[in-house]
């Protein structure tokens, strides 16, 4: 990026769109650091085609905030008042050049600026340093701190697409990550992920999911990725709620064996508010609640997928709080899980995740991070956490 782009592209950065050309995709495939690399990786010719792909991503982000099945935002990272991208870029350049690297300054700036503001910093940095900020940060940082900071330089959909790609194309499929990413994202988020995934990796997300999974697990993930979920309606259809609750019961607990296709159809196509009411009504038919029924009826990756779906339908922030608690209390702490959730949710709902964490585990997320992490990694996580409860 930088002066090569010219003024029109700076306008796009101020819209919060063009930073999606910056992130490094760490999957062994394309690694678009600079503008030219991104264009080459995307088989696009600047400026017009790239411009439209970036604008379409920005419009997709707007959809998440303003319409469709959007959810309320509870971010811990918000736009910084009195923002000065040139000043921030200069401070980051100095921090990188400092002997031993001034990690604290990098943390203080990039965890306290919104994604749009980080894009503007990236533009200003390249303009003054004549190199892109991703390359500079990769050279200056290492370990889990590097993973967090580089993650913050990606748009939400680009970060999610990269995580999914890594879970599929690593050494063996990382089903746990794949399940978390696909089963916890809304229809609109999945639509945006699919678009960015294709731009980055030159293949359809559905194709990669189908190639690395099998059986009913594959069928469920593909049904979710195909984004056929209905939009929420202001009309509560009690008859349909009852029909779906009974169908879930008759397809599982009531019979010998499980009619998985019926479960997949209902859980991948009905709106979230409708399903919340269906699970309540389900208790009128079954001696077990929906989660207990899933544990009795299916096993393995399919069980984990259905459980993740139901937990997210019922309380998505509690689901993520539980994931964070489990990851940090595992011996050695599952850094990848903690990093993924903290980065992907800090501008979405991390404040509410904090609240659910304290309510259900009796200790704040801030305190738990302090106890189970250390060094610069601890500092960057605490900064994203943005306070104790």
What does this structure look like?
The protein is mostly helical and 389 residues long. The radius of gyration is 22 Å and the shape is elongated. It has 22 helices and no strands. One of its GO terms (cellular component) is nucleus. Pfam families: Annexin. Keywords: Annexin, Basement membrane, Calcium, Calcium/phospholipid-binding, Extracellular matrix, Phosphoprotein, Repeat, Secreted.
Explain the layout of strands and helices.
Elements: H1 7-15, H2 35-42, H3 48-66, H4 85-97, H5 103-110, H6 115-129, H7 133-140, H8 143-152, H9 156-169, H10 175-183, H11 187-201, H12 205-212, H13 215-225, H14 238-251, H15 260-269, H16 272-282, H17 290-297, H18 300-329, H19 335-345, H20 350-361, H21 365-372, H22 375-385
Please tally the β strands and state the result: 0
Number of helices: 22
What structural class is derived from the secondary structure elements? mainly alpha
Order of helices and strands: HHHHHHHHHHHHHHHHHHHHHH
What does the overall shape look like?
elongated
- Mean pLDDT over the residues: 86
The biggest beta sheet reads: none
Distance between the termini: 40 Å
Low-confidence stretches: 1-18, 20-69
How large is the radius of gyration? 22 Å
- Proportion of residues in extended strands: under 5%
Portion of residues within helices: 55-70%
Main location: secreted
Organism: Anguilla anguilla
InterPro entries: Annexin, Annexin_repeat, Annexin_repeat_CS, Annexin_sf, ANX2
Subcellular location: Secreted, Extracellular space, Extracellular matrix, Basement membrane
